[in-house]
Each structure stands twice: as structure tokens, then as C-alpha cells.
Amino acid sequence: MKKILLMMFLTLLAGLAALRAADWSYVVDLEGYWYFSVGDDPAWANPRTDVSDWDKIKVPVNWEEYYPGYNGYAWYRKDFDMRPYPDDGALFLLLGEIDDVDEVFINGTKVGQTGGFFPDYFTAYNVYRKYSLPKGLLKPEGNVIVVRVYDEGNQGGIVRGDEIGIFYDNDAELIAYDLGGKWKFSTYREKDILEPGFDDSSWNEINVPGEWESQGYPNHDGYGWYRKEFSVSGTLKDEDLLISLGKIDDFDKVYLNGKLIARTQDLHVYDRLSKWQAYNMFRIYDIPEDLLKKNNVLVVEVYDEQQRGGIWEGPIGLITRHNAYILEDHNDDIFWGGSVRSIIRSIFNW
Description:
Structural class: mainly beta
Low-confidence stretches: 2-21, 333-350
Helix content: 10-25%
CATH superfamily of the largest domain: Galactose-binding domain-like
Shape: globular
CATH topology of the largest domain: Jelly Rolls
Radius of gyration: 21 Å
Number of helices: 5
Largest sheet: 6 strands, antiparallel
Order of helices and strands: HEEEEEEEEEEEEEEEHEEEEEEHHH
Number of strands: 21
């Protein structure tokens, strides 16, 4: 009975924790009316497509309100400009819940997909869409977002969402050396991948942070390896630095210059209760003295049990110890590591 009560309580708290987003600011509000067309044509991903004869429908809303009984493919499009934001800012696109499958293009570049189109169809109708945007993708003016959607039945389209738009992660300003952006990625472990001289040219690129399901690895559960080579100046190397890896679903091991420096179980809040919420723990790890060099290679081994996987939320990079304390205060690590855990232990006499 105690175990059942605990699981129910954890489920409730997980829902509450999911509402505690990163420290974000609106950059572009994308709610309102979008161009819309039923049908399916890959050429519509081109931002130069003439959409003057498309309809307009409101986002977010069930497209059945405009097209009763329609199931199948449809495309959304919206043009937008950007207000100023820090050049090195971490940007995310939030699109709410989409029924059933979507893929998203900005300025002609695919930035993510959730669910599976035919012939490997699977629905993601209840998954909240959040896509990390590559640096340099957006322009001050004349941006175009296009969303392709497939609906199998019942509701269809961009059906709901409290926040539809592009957001800037304010926490990124705490990072001393940004490691977000393109990383090398593989679902296979190869010999010598930890070493600086390893040839990863055959590996795919993946945007970090960002769920790997939305970046070409739908339904992948199990292991994935991230690899990043980077250089730091002598001045920065002499700082008291830690490494921030955001949130990882579910478990990780971190190697710097061939040496294992941390794993999920090393987090100070990790215990038999909090391990069930490992995906929502913020990773900040110490860097052993004298291990950080001018030229470095960072490898993160991730094991995902189910649903989304990978390094899914940032910020990512090297951070001073002082700023690490500030960053932790902005994230769910404190939520799980502090008062909530104490309350649970009191209830269950732990």
C-alpha cells in the first residue's frame, strides 16, 4: 500500500515539476492566425512557397473546428520577425501538443519531428513539443516557420498549448563557455571514442540540448553517445570551473579527455527516491584539477529507459562555481532535493 501511495504521489509531483520551466523569456509570440492548407507536398517546406491562396486558422486550436471530420495531412505556415536577443542565446521553439505527428521547418531547415509518419507511423498526440533551435538559423526579419502535421483521427493539428512561440533561456547567460549547439552523436559505441584523436567524422550531428527523438532517432530507447571537441583559453582554464549538462533522460556517464569524471549517481540529491526522477535532475559536475586542457574532448554516454531521450534541456557549458549555485536555484534539482523530498520522507518515515 505504501508503495502504491508513493507512486501516485510521485506522479502528481512529476506533473507539477514539468510545469516549472527553465528561466525563459518570450522572443517571438507565435499564437494567433497561421496560413493553413490541407494536403501534402514536400515543396511546401520551402519558405518561398506562394501561400496567398491558403486559408488562415487560429493556433492553437483543433483544426476540426474549421474542417469538421478531416483526417490526414495538413501544413501550417507563419512569417515572423525577431526582436533583439543575446547573440549567443539558447533559443527554443514551443508548439504545445500536436495531434498526431509533426515535423517543423524554419527558413527551410528541419528543426525537429515528433511521432512517426507512414510507413512507420506512431502517434505523439500527448507530447508537448519543444525544439532547440540551431545558432545562426534565425534572421532579424523575414523568418518563416512551416509545420507539417498528420492526424489519424479525432482532433487534429496544433490543438493546445499555454505558450506557443520562441523563447530565450536566460540561464545561458550564467555559462562561462558555451558548449551548446552541434555535437557528434552515435547509438553505437566504438573503440577509442573517448580519446582526442578518435575520428568521429562518420557520426551524425545532433543539436544539444534537444531530445534525440525529434532529431532523427524516433522511438530510440537504450544507449547514445555524444562527443564534443572544444578549446579554452588559458585565462578561462585557470578558473574554478564546473560543467553544466542540463537535464538528461535518463542516466549518464561523463568523460573528459578520456577520464570518467561523473555519472548520474554522483549527484548530491541522488538516492533511491530521486532516481525515479533522474530525467528531471539538473547535471552540474566538478572537473578534476588539471584535467581541463587547452584542447579537450568531452564524451557523454546516455542511457534512456523509455519515451524521450538524451540531453534534452540546457544550458550546456562550463560554469564558475558561483554561477553554478545560482543556476541550481533556477532548476528542478532544488525542487527534488529540498523541501519536497523532506516532506515525502516524513510521510513515509524514511
